[in-house]
Structure to design on (445 residues):
């Protein structure tokens, strides 16, 4: 009667184990989302973007008239002059003053418009900087992820050859026992087996280092063990695409280019903002106020709300005459910053074109190298098999067999490396054309 119950518990345990195992697999998309959410540089750029956003709101509101309210309540003992009655008194008196003033700088509206445009493009520049930082972090995560996968694949290759060498060592022992091979061949084969195991340990150390670097980049708990998805989606691109078309796409989408372009426009408006200090300021203002004095016989309500109300309308003008060429110096520095930012825009255009050209040349070379290394691996494999056959037929020697095996191992490892290098190059092309954010699918809410 307990058998169905225990069977149910066993099935439940196994199903939970499967779920846990599935959760430990960290997909590339999940890794990218973790990085975007936890990266410190991204968090800082978000704060800077929020700051420029609020500054843009401040610039919009500065177009409106400014309104200020003031009030004071005090008691004075001693000789006091009552402004309301015009009488000098030597007794203690209580006073209340309050006013509201609205002013609007009419002549300096162009200054405020320049400030508005400056804050707008500063915000656009910071937004682009934030997006570029995200793209850069994504590329770094992809690089670490692929390096880890490459080390995992290297381990499989080395583990396979360790097994092959172990089987070969056992076969050599058997042939030595029947006198078909000399005894020293055992030590030669055993030395090669030890060398392979040592190489695998070196690679395992590299694998653990790469995995820890990835977890550190994602700010994950380094005490946990993770698995990576083995079959990544291959990034494809048009083989017939030209450098010029890639360059045009990059200028449309590259965030670092947009950041410098927006910063250049912002610096242009900064020049206009500094030049506005040459213009006289002309403001109109309105003041509404009232006061109360305890020396008067009327009540606080009558004095403050009826009798002592004042309405003042006026204009003020401020003409800059001499300030030690401070304004001229600020205008000069703003012009230099603007000219430098224009040079930065020109320079990044050249940099983008050269980066794309170099990467396309690298991809072309790596594709050819992948084909050559594939042929190298197949040839090395065939040479190893033939040398192995000669050796066990008594026509070869262990040194030649060892050389053939090492050539086969080296070719296999090089082929694995170029495959992952080519995969990274294609992700890098997405980055250089401003499209690497397309990898951020199924965003976490």
């Amino acid at each position: 009667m307990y058998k169905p119950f225990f069977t149910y518990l066993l099935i439940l345990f196994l199903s939970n184990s499967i779920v846990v195992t599935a959760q430990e697999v960290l997909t590339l998309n999940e890794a990218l989302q973790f990085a975007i959410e936890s990266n410190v540089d991204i968090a800082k750029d978000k704060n800077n973007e929020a700051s420029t956003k609020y500054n843009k709101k401040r610039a919009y509101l500065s177009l409106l008239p400014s309104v200020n309210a003031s009030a004071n309540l005090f008691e004075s003992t001693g000789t006091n002059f009552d402004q309301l009655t015009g009488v000098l008194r030597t007794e203690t008196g209580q006073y209340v003053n309050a006013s509201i003033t609205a002013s609007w700088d009419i002549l300096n509206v162009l200054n405020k418009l320049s400030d508005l445009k400056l804050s707008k493009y500063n915000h656009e520049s910071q937004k682009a900087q934030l997006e570029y930082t995200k793209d850069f972090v994504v590329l770094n995560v992809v690089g670490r992820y692929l390096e880890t996968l490459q080390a995992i694949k290297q381990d499989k290759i080395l583990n396979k050859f360790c097994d092959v060498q172990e089987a070969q060592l056992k076969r050599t022992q058997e042939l030595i026992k029947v006198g078909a091979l000399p005894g020293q061949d055992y030590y030669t084969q055993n030395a090669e087996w030890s060398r392979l195991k040592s190489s695998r340990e070196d690679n395992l150390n590299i694998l653990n280092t790469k995995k820890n670097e990835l977890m550190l980049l994602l700010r994950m708990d380094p005490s946990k063990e993770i698995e990576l998805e083995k079959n990544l989606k291959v990034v494809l691109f048009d083989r017939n695409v030209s450098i010029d078309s890639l360059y045009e796409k990059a200028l449309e989408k590259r965030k670092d280019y947009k950041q410098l372009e927006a910063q250049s426009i912002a610096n242009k408006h900064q020049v206009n903002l500094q030049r506005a200090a040459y213009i006289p300021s002309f403001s109109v203002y309105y003041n509404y106020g009232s006061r109360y004095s305890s020396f008067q016989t009327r009540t606080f309500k009558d004095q403050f709300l009826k009798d002592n109300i004042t309405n003042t309308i006026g204009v003020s003008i401020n003409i800059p005459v001499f300030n030690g060429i401070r304004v001229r110096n600020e205008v000069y520095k703003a012009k230099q910053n603007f000219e430098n930012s224009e040079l930065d825009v020109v320079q990044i255009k050249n940099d983008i074109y050269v980066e794309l050209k170099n990467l396309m040349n690298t991809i072309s070379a790596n594709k050819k190298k992948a084909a050559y290394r594939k042929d190298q691996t197949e040839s090395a494999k065939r040479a190893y098999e033939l040398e192995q056959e000669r050796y066990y037929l008594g026509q070869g020697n262990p040194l030649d067999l060892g050389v053939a095996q090492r050539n086969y191992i080296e070719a296999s490892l090089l082929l694995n490396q170029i495959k992952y290098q080519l995969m990274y190059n294609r992700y890098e092309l997405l980055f250089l054309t401003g499209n690497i954010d397309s990898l951020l699918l199924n965003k976490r809410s």
